[in-house]
Amino acid sequence: MVSLSAFTIATLFLCAAAQNVTILKQTLSAAGVTAVYQGDANYSTVSRAYNRRFTFSPVAVAFPTTVSQVSTAVAAGTAQNYEVVARSGGHSYIANCLGGNNGALVVDLSQLKAITVRPSNNTALIETGNRLGDVALALNANGRALPHGTSPYVGIGGHSAYGGFGFTSRAWGLTLDRVTSATVVLANGTVVSASANVNPDLYWAIRGASPSFGIVTSIEVQTFPAPPSVTVFSYNWNDLSISAASTTITAFQTFAASNIPPEFGAELIFGQGSSSGKLSVQLLGGYYGAANLFSGVIAPYLNAAGMPKPSSQVVTPGSYINSVTYFAEGQSLNTSTAPDGSDNFYTKSLMTPSGSPMSAAAVTAFVTYMANQGFSSTADWFVEVELYGGSNSAINAVPLNSTAFGKRDTLFTIQFYASAPSGATTYPTTGFTFLDGMVSSILNNSPANWNYGAYLNYIDDMLANATTLYYGSQYARLMALKATWDPSDTFRFPVGVA
Ligand SMILES: Cc1cc2nc3c(=O)[nH]c(=O)nc-3n(C[C@H](O)[C@H](O)[C@H](O)COP(=O)(O)OP(=O)(O)OC[C@H]3O[C@@H](n4cnc5c(N)ncnc54)[C@H](O)[C@@H]3O)c2cc1C
Ligand SMILES: *[C@@H]1O[C@H](CO)[C@@H](O)[C@H](O)[C@H]1NC(C)=O
Ligand SMILES: *[C@@H]1O[C@H](CO)[C@@H](O)[C@H](O)[C@H]1NC(C)=O
Ligand SMILES: *[C@@H]1O[C@H](CO)[C@@H](O)[C@H](O)[C@H]1NC(C)=O
Ligand SMILES: *[C@@H]1O[C@H](CO)[C@@H](O)[C@H](O)[C@H]1NC(C)=O
Ligand SMILES: *[C@@H]1O[C@H](CO)[C@@H](O)[C@H](O)[C@H]1NC(C)=O
Ligand SMILES: *[C@@H]1O[C@H](CO)[C@@H](O)[C@H](O)[C@H]1NC(C)=O
Ligand SMILES: *[C@@H]1O[C@H](CO)[C@@H](O)[C@H](O)[C@H]1NC(C)=O
């Protein structure tokens, strides 16, 4: 006797529901929405993932030019039971902007590029087809700035959906913390506002999980005065021993708790050394206060017991926009001047709790793994230990439940990144176990109840217990809101809100 649960029946119904591409085509065409379908000349170009490890075949990629066209596209996709996803900059690590599955309708936002800076109340209205470099240029032209990451080609849509960390974040928060309102296209095509006063529960959900709730066509953000001086810094240590490289982390944890100012933003970057047992280490960041104060701010870290002397260093004061350019590592901030790049990679992340920093044993195991297995790895790799927390961090000052972002009491967000070696066209199989083992080297030496998390902008579809690690205690409320705002589960993709 087989009995079907309501859930199974609903699933069968959804799978069996008709998907008629002819009707989709007719609807989009009647509304003047440009779209590229399977078999069209541009299809392979417009459906390529930034992460070449993934190939998906969407039913179509639509290029709406107005909010009304976005609405038409979403409603048409929902009516034909297609999975619908937004694409802003297209940098999702697991190609969720292509649906993360075959057969999705991709709503590409690249034609929605307006940025309006409003001096009257220091906000900016940013359409979500913009990329971070273009946002930084437009705001800076008006003397303003926003917290966000360093890569100019990352889209503001995905970035502000799931977080948005940069070196100004300890002073100004994550990108999503500065969103004051948004225009959202719901699954049925209805266009709504979301803010503290209008649809406050949707406003809560989109700051941490918007891809599961709708397509955000624009965000209004609070901006900051571009700081008059920014000191960019890069301290480099070549071929550190395991013990010295471990000290760069343990001393960083101690330093972070020593009342450091919010104007200090930094990360440690680890890479392969020139022999087994050695590592290259870099401290990269920006100081957003007066230039003459920086040496006093950094001194306690550089002079901490056991800290090695840097092999080289760059410490350069300059303008705010020069700092944005410096962190772009040679890429133009104006993203219309050169095409986007690509990679073939696997990424994981780990957010360490402020109240329980990594133990000495965890740090040693982690560094030993990077120095040894990292030397023999067939995949290229790097690790970034980003400073979210420490004293005076604006990220952790935001009450956990005021947005849907999963984790606030974070000291470090660690990104583990491995890619196909140059020249190779596929990611090496051993690269998965290599990176998984790196994360385990920390977890196996941490308390069983360690309250760690993971970062959705470094999204990983191979993460065990992903729902808990990404959404944490927000998940129950997100699921309830999902039923209200996207009852047909139009916006469905790997690691989304079910
Ligand atoms: C080279 C590189 C550097 C990076 N550096 C940083 C960094 O410094 N700091 C940091 O925090 N992160 C960084 N990231 C991660 C980055 O923030 C995420 O990959 C981000 O999600 C990409 O946004 P996107 O719009 O480019 O991607 P997309 O793939 O377009 O979108 C990502 C997800 O958001 C959804 N989405 C996109 N637009 C919308 C919208 N308007 N409404 C609703 N849902 C939407 C998509 O459907 C998809 O699920 C970096 C990534 C790369 C590749
Ligand atoms: C799809 O819709 C078109 C137009 O209404 C119709 O002619 C066609 O038979 C439909 N296809 C399927 C497979 O139902
Ligand atoms: C398809 O490619 C051609 C030639 O590169 C280009 O002119 C056209 O704008 C493209 N269309 C779309 C929808 O991308
Ligand atoms: C800022 O001003 C614009 C008009 O210039 C207005 O539309 C918007 O609602 C204001 N935003 C806030 C948060 O006050
Ligand atoms: C970006 O580059 C394009 C193409 O060269 C140019 O038209 C545009 O004015 C530039 N934008 C800015 C903000 O410099
Ligand atoms: C946040 O809300 C959840 C319920 O969704 C509650 O259990 C938790 O205690 C709240 N946490 C804080 C820090 O307010
Ligand atoms: C997943 O997370 C929950 C809640 O924290 C925990 O109880 C469970 O043990 C975790 N499962 C695994 C496999 O880690
Ligand atoms: C569209 O969806 C929203 C959210 O589920 C709902 O409140 C609204 O009534 C729907 N509109 C129509 C016209 O069905």
Automatic annotation (TrEMBL):
Gene3D superfamilies: 3.30.465.10, 3.40.462.20. Its cofactor is FAD. Pfam families: BBE, FAD_binding_4. It comes from the Eukaryota. Keywords: FAD, Flavoprotein, Oxidoreductase, Signal. One of its GO terms (molecular function) is FAD binding. Residues 54-226 form the FAD-binding PCMH-type domain. This is Glucooligosaccharide oxidase. It comes from Mycena alexandri.
